[in-house]
């Protein structure tokens, strides 16, 4: 597995995600993976995050390098999952996408123990860039 790329997280997302982790009854591998990602993130204000960084509720276009298949995904909180392309922050791919910048690649643990390489191609919507974040 490759080393993890550097990531950026907004202070507001960090606070909300820490509250989410604190509220979980079952603190399993998914929560541990998210906690690890948050602990290594560079934290910035919501008005300081670059537009090419995945934040909560961002919509992204990414490619799985092995097959060349492209995906349109939206990173959401667990209670917002439902509908095509919505990925929970507690899903392995959701945790891996958080804070990633356009052009960076991540290893994505797929079902069956296989690891896929996912490259972030574009952010089609980022709440902070659109000025649409709730304080």
Count of helix runs: 4
Percent of residues in helices comes to 25-40%
- How many strands? 7
The profile of the biggest β sheet is: 5 strands, mixed
- The CATH topology is Chitinase A, domain 3
Average per-residue pLDDT, rounded, comes to 89
By secondary-structure content and strand pairing, the structural class works out as: alpha/beta
CATH architecture group name: Roll
Distance between the termini: 37 Å
Regions with little confidence, pLDDT below 50 for 5+ residues: none
Q: What is the N-to-C order of secondary-structure elements (H for helix, E for strand)?
A: EHHEEEEHEEH
What name goes with the CATH superfamily? Transcription elongation factor, GreA/GreB, C-terminal domain
Number of domains: 1
Shape: globular
Widest beta sheet: strand line-up: 5-4-3-7-6
Global Rg: 14 Å
Strand content: 25-35%
The CATH C-level name is Alpha Beta
């Amino acid at each position: 597995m490759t080393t993890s790329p550097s990531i950026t997280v907004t202070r507001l997302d960090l606070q909300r995600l820490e509250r989410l982790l604190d509220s979980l009854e079952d603190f399993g591998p998914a929560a541990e993976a998210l906690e690890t990602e948050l602990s290594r993130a560079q934290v910035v204000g919501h008005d300081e995050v670059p537009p090419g960084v995945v934040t909560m509720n961002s919509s992204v276009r990414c490619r799985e390098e092995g097959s060349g298949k492209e995906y349109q995904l939206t990173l959401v909180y667990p209670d917002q999952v439902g509908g095509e392309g919505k990925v929970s922050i507690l899903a392995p791919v959701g945790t891996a996408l958080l804070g990633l910048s356009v052009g960076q690649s991540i290893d994505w643990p797929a079902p069956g123990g296989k690891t896929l390489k996912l490259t972030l191609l574009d952010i089609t919507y980022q709440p902070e860039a659109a000025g649409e974040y709730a304080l």
